[in-house]
Amino acid sequence: MKTLTKFISAAFAVLIFAIGAVTANGAGKNAEGLTTPRPRPTPAPRPTPPLTADIGSSYSNSKVPYSLDHPAIFAAIGYPPEDPAGVAYGDFNGDGIPDVIFAPPEATVIALGQPGGGYIDGTTQVISGEVPAPTGGRKIIVADFNGDGWPDIFIADATDGLPLTHNWLLLSDGTGHLVYQSALATIEGVGFHHGATAGAIDRSGHTDIFVVEDNNPSHYFLLNDGQGQFTVDMTRVPPSIRTNLSNMYACELIDVDYDNNLDLVTGGTEGPNAQPTQIFWGDGTGFYSDANKTVLPAEPEFDAVYDIDSEDINHDGLRDLVITRVSDNEIGFYFQVVMQTSRRVFADESLPRLIHDRSTWIGNNAGPIYWMRLVDMTGDGAPDLVYDGAGTDLNHGPRQLGWANDGNGYFTFTGGWSKVIWTTPLVGGTFSPPAPGTYSYDVNWDQPIDPASVQPTDLTLSGIQGATVTGVAVIHENLTTEFTLNIPTGGRLTASIAAGAITDQLGQPNVTFSGSYPVSPWAPTPTPTPRPHPTPPPRP
Ligand SMILES: [Ca+2]
Ligand SMILES: [Ca+2]
Ligand SMILES: [Ca+2]
Ligand SMILES: [Ca+2]
């Protein structure tokens, strides 16, 4: 039976446009990995570049390595604080500073990070023409559908109740704007879309979209012609899920077996007559079949799958999964850790690696979690587990949660971290005018920080002798620490903040930060060469 009440207050998702941020760590296979007692090799995480198949996928683009405080951003741009489940990240105006798109009910909001820190409401600046107003904007995916190098956006709409509506596509115009493509609705129609995921499913190289459609007639692919023009295709959807539309919520295109073909991972309610969580293995044709799939372990107590992440969490060269789940009645959350123990073979290791004790698990009586990210938050190369609060009912307060990976795929609850997102000048940029001088240095955080935890000595400078920090102010709704620097001469200045030096307003410590900036020395204007007095013309 369809359960439109699923995922109810839901609404939404998260993503960034950061090609290359996939942490496909392959530290080499460990042939001794099956002996007892459990080996605890020294972590030697060395992130490897993403495999070709994952580059440009919406999953890869979602891997932003920080945890934004969404209500604080809404407040900063003059809206009532909220934390819609529909959220995605990217640099939408191409200035090198991360931006955010939200889909609260009946709206689309783009917050642009600013050079000096903080955010402005950039919705109408970026979206030229009609601004989409999804009634049930849920998962937002970011990918370059029209191949111009600028991020495009697809908002899956899962309106809770009637009337159902269609999805929303925005394409870049190549000059920093996004344009709503109303024509998509003429081929897609209305429906109830719990999820969507984008990636190059065949060797055409075009970024296609898989759409979850719980209504009718089927889940489907939107095949891209390379220009962002799509056609609906159901023939590539495996028959078992084409004919059984029961409660599919989650989908991702990820190359789980590292064979360079994107695999389709789907999940929803696992109860009787519904669907297992499963991986349909890609073969490069773009067709997925029941003959070539692997069913993943079930989890009856938390049997509704809301999100799927896959990274090699223990650095053995095999990509594992962490599956975000809630109970069938939407109470609580659970992270199922599914290890790939040998190629395409999986085992549920949730208890030893993350949950530990079911009776005291933090998610037992909590609200649902809609999305989670496996991404390295602490800088050691191992993917941590982070939840940025998306979809949180603010009556219960904002939630930022984090679990640290020890490098071997064992997680410890930390409560989360705060992190520098961008600085002014941007890392690698320069202070101007040339030194010597006194300069503002803005450090922009993902969370409002606690001003009482901030002192000038939190920032250490190296690389230029005599450079000093003379002051600091906390500005932009506490999202920015503005340090005052005295730089006596040119060189390469490195500015660092040690882990734990600053805490945010939830008490979360910062992770270490370091940025390097070339500084030009002041060069005196050359003294003009004295012009010789003209020889007076000879007097007659
Ligand atoms: Ca930007
Ligand atoms: Ca584009
Ligand atoms: Ca694959
Ligand atoms: Ca692994």
Number of helices: 6
Shape: globular
* pLDDT < 50 stretches: 1-36
Termini, distance in Å? 116 Å
Structural category: mainly beta
Q: How are strands sequenced across the largest beta sheet?
A: 1-2-3-4
Number of strands: 32
Main beta-sheet annotation: 4 strands, antiparallel
CA-atom Rg in angstroms: 25 Å
Strand content: 25-35%
Brief overview, please?
The chain is mainly beta and 540 residues long. The protein is built from six helices and 32 strands. The chain has helices at residues 58-61, 70-76, 123-126, 184-188, 239-242, 350-355; strands at residues 87-90, 99-102, 109-113, 119-121, 137-143, 152-157, 168-172, 178-180, 196-199, 208-211, 220-224, 230-233, 248-254, 263-268, 278-280, 293-295, 304-311, 320-326, 334-342, 345-348, 373-375, 384-387, 401-405, 411-413, 420-424, 431-435, 437-445, 459-462, 468-475, 480-487, 491-497, 513-521.
Description:
Helix content is 6%, strand content 32%. By secondary structure, it is mainly beta. It is globular, with a radius of gyration of 25 Å. The model is unreliable at 1-36 (pLDDT under 50). It binds calcium ion (4 copies). The site of one calcium ion has 7 residues, from loops.
